[in-house]
Amino acid sequence: MHRVVEQVTNRIIERSKPHRQSYLQRIDEAKGDGVFRNSLPCPNLAHDLAGCVGTCRSSLLDASVPNIAIISAYTDMVSAHQPYGKYPEIIKESVAKAGGNAQFAGGVPAMCDGVTQGEAGMDMSLMSRDVIAMSTVIGLSHNVFDGAILLGVCDKILPGLLMGGLQFGHLPMILIPAGPMTSGIANKDKNTVREAYAKGEVGHAELLASEVKAYHSPGTCTFYGTANSNQLMAEMLGMHLPGSSFVNAGTKLREALTRSAAERITSLTHLGRNYTPLAHVISEKAIVNAIVGLMATGGSTNETMHLVAIARAAGIRIDWNDFAEISDITPLLVRIYPNGSGDINSFQRAGGMALLIRELLKGGLLHEDVQTVAGKGFAQYTEAPLLENGRTVWRKGPEQAGDSTVIATVNKPFELLGGIKVLSGNLGRAIMKISALADGEKTFVEAPAMVFNSQQELEDAFKADRLNRDMVAVVRFQGPRANGMPELHKLITHLSITMDRGYKVGLVTDGRLSGASGKVPFAIHCTPEAVTGGLLNKVQDGDIICMDAHNSILELKVNEEELGKRQAFVHNLDATRYGLGRQVFAPLRKNLLGAEEGASSIFTYRDEN
C-alpha cells in the first residue's frame, strides 16, 4: 500500500472517529431480528398488503421472505434514466426467483443538467440532490423493507440516492446502472460546431443537427462528465457489481447484470448468511478508493462536493486536502474526453474498470480489504462480466489495454499526477482540473481581472468583442447560497475561442463547471463564496490575479491596505431566486454549506453526523 494513501486513510479515520462511531451505533440499533414488516401493527401492514398483486401478498405474509425496495429516478426526459422504465418488472421477477419480494417504494426527481444548462432550471440542480436524498428517505420510511435497490446515474441523482440511503445504513443496498448510449459524433467535433455557432459561422439548424448526433439515444452521455464519474465512483465504492458500470444500455448483458444485481441483493439481507449493510460498504477505505479512482481518470470536479456529502452521510469526514494529497501521488491512467479524444465506450473497449482497478491495485493505490456488494475484497473487481447462456458470469479481466492511448499502465502513466489541484490564497480555496489541460503551461495564469456577476454578462462581453485580451475572468455570486451553484458551461465556448485567438485566459468562480470543462484553466468552487463574504466580492476590473497550479496558489495581487478601503460589492440576486419555482428552494439555499463541506443543507456541522 502506498504510504500516502495509508496516511490519508488513517487521518480520515481519526478525524471521523466520533461521527463515524455515533453513526454506526445508530445503525446497529436499527437492525432487526426478523422481517421488518412484522414489527408493524396489523392495520399498518394491511395497508402495505392492499396494494399487492400476484404473489406479493402471500410473500409478504411469509416471515422468511425478504422484501426489497426499489427507489428509482426513472424519467423519459433524462436519456440516462429512460431505460429504468423497464427495470422494476425485471427486478421484481428476479428477486422473486431468488426467494424474495420487491416493491416499488418511491420515485425521486431527476433533473437533466444538459437540458437546463444555462437556463433558470439549472439554479435548482445542485439543491435537487438534497431533495433526492429526502425523497429516498421517504420511500424507505415505511419500515417494511429488508434491502433496497437504487436506480440512478446522473449528476445529483446518484449522490442523493446514497445520501438518503445511508440513513438506512442497516439495510443492504445495490446501485444498478442503466449504461451509456453508444457513441455518436466525436466530442471534439461537437465542440467545433459549438464554437463555430458562437462565432456566427454556422446557424441554429447546423448546431442542432450536430447536438442530436452527439446525444442520440437512451443511455448516459458518452463524455467523461459527472454522470460517468458517478458510475466509476459507485464501482470504486463497491456499490455496483464488478464491471457493470459501462455496459451499454439496451443490451442483453445490461439486462443480465440487472437480474444478477436483483438476485444478489436478495441474498444480502439480515435474514441470510451474507448480511452486508450499506453502512459497512461505505467505509473510510472505500471513500479513499473512490478518490483514487477519480484522480486516476481525471473525473468530474463535482465529485469534490458529492463525495464529501456522501461521506458525511456515513459519518465520515473528508476535505479537499485529502483529494489534493491523493491526486499528487496518483498517476493519470485514463484519457477520455475531456482528457482525451475517446469516450466512455472507448474506455470500456480498452479494458474498462477491471483493467483500471488491476493497475491501481498493482501500484498499491487501493485498499483491497474492503466490503463490497459482491463480497469481501476488492480483487474480484478485476474480473469482467460476460454473457453465457443468458446469465452473467465473471471471468478474469484483461491484463493489457486494448488501446494504450486510452488506458495506460501504472508504470508508464499518461501523467505522474492525478486529475486535480487545490489552489489556496487570499481569494480562498478552489479546485483546478489539470488533467484536461493539454499544455502544462496553462496551469499558470497571471493576468488582469475582468469581473462579471453572471454568465450572461460574460456572454454579452464576448458578443461585444470585449474579451479579446489577456485576462482572468471572475464570475462571482454563483456559489451555493447565492443562487444554488449552477453549472457554468455557457462560459467555456466563449473563453475557449478567446484562448484560440492567442490570449492568456483563466477563470475564477464560486460556481461549478463539472467534468466536461475542456481546455480552459480555471479555479472553481471558490470558497468562501462572494455572497458570504469571500474576497471575490472585492475584486475589481484590472486587478492582477495569479492562478498557479504547480505551487497551489490562488492570489489577488492587491495589498491589504487597498483591500481594507474597498467596500464589498453587493449584487441583487432576486433575478436568480425567483421564477420557474426557484423561490420554493429558499429554505434549502440559505442553509447550504460551502463547496468544500459538500454544499448540502441536510448534513451540517451542527448535526451529530
Contiguous runs where pLDDT drops below 50 for at least 5 residues: 605-609
End-to-end separation in angstroms reads 29 Å
Structural class: alpha/beta
The beta-strand count equals: 16
* Count of runs of 4 or more consecutive helical residues: 23
DSSP strand (E) fraction? 5-15%
Domain unit count: 2
Helix content: 25-40%
Shape: globular
Going across the biggest sheet, name each strand in turn.
9-10-14-13-12-11-15-16
Biggest beta sheet attributes: 8 strands, mixed
What value does the average pLDDT take? 93
Radius of gyration: 24 Å
Domain Dihydroxy-acid/6-phosphogluconate dehydratase N-terminal: 66-379
Protein name: Phosphogluconate dehydratase
GO cellular component, one term: cytosol
Organism: Desulfocapsa sulfexigens (strain DSM 10523 / SB164P1)
